[in-house]
Fold Deoxyguanosinetriphosphate triphosphohydrolase-like protein.
Amino acid sequence: MLGALEDPAPPPTRRGAGSGRPGKAEAAQAAGLLSSRGRYRRNGRSRQVRRGFQPPPLRPCAVTEPQCGGRRHPEPHPGHRGELQRDRDRIIHSAAFRRLEYKTQVFINHEGDLYRTRLTHTLEVGQIARTCAQALGLNIDLVEALALAHDLGHTPFGHAGQEALAERMAGLGGFEHNIQSLRVVDDLEARYAEFDGLNLTFATREGLLKRCSPEKAERLGAVAARFRDGGQPSLEAQLVNLCDGIAYNSHDVDDGLRSGLISVAECRETALLAPLFAEVEAAYPGLDERRTIYEVVRRMIDAQVRDLLAESEARLDAAAPEDLAAVRRRASPLIGFSPAMAERHQGLKAFLHERLYQHFRVARMVHKSRRVVQALFDTFLADPGLMPPQPRAAAEARAARRGEAGRARAVADYIAGMTDRFAIDEHRRLFRPEERT
């Protein structure tokens, strides 16, 4: 079945037939906006005509193909697709993307089959971000690439794994999953004969960095210049950052309720969720709890998306940035929630932190996860020979150039690339004598 963006093109309109006046499709084709196959051309690609809804044109301040900044290693133009589409496709086909299926969002993979993983989280971010990008007239290909790559550098066991690695890497260069995502696409993916990494465009690489210290920005160079010199990222990067928050707040509520670690009664205490529960119960009296939760979660996403679009449209209309450079010069983001929604969004985050992320069962998972990551790091750093040949060779090469800090970085790269279950298996192989090595 064709998806929403793949509806067959409608037949040419009959309006004006016989009167010498062209219909909409004929007029669009004559203007060069519509190909002979009934596809609207926008953003360097064809888009099929859709009944009812038509996406707005690309904003002058959105990122265009000529502005994507090129690649670290020059390559011929892909020809049949755009440069940013190539970025997106390379991300989807990467090993790091596949590993997200078995990396923790909140619940470790073996806790249950229906809880979100890093992969399902990533796909939900992509869906929300694509919808918003289309409504705002932003570059959908760049938004998709950023959404799909934003968590490639995440460790096993979610934030517990990141905190454990950051603790061990203190004084040795530090660890932050956001910068690690850039390392993955720049250096760690080993797929191509002519270069390391995925060789993505500058626009995608720069958009992956959400935060960075001035010291690290100096080392990273142009891709992190805004953290050193000030300014904003592209509108597309701003959008994905907000959609990431919408997705994880919403699905963490869903997973928290499914697990029984938070209750509907507790959720009613939040300013964002209370009116949504009341709305669903008024519309559907007697609806079972599972469906009630789903109806509330979908309304929660919708309310945040609608607010984000309205507020961002208002900011863009007021600022009227004439091009991408004007967006970058801004002192504050142009994509964002209204003050009222931002307060409700932050209130929900605080609720989840207190009631879900600090629940004793989650705390136990975090405790075990941190111990696994810490033990792996300490053991491999002390004896890199215990690692498989490829990460061991990387540790030796980096140690030759940068000493212990180089060896530690290679160990962190190896651990950060693990899935939850691979990390657990490695821990067993190292510390349980009865396990095969």
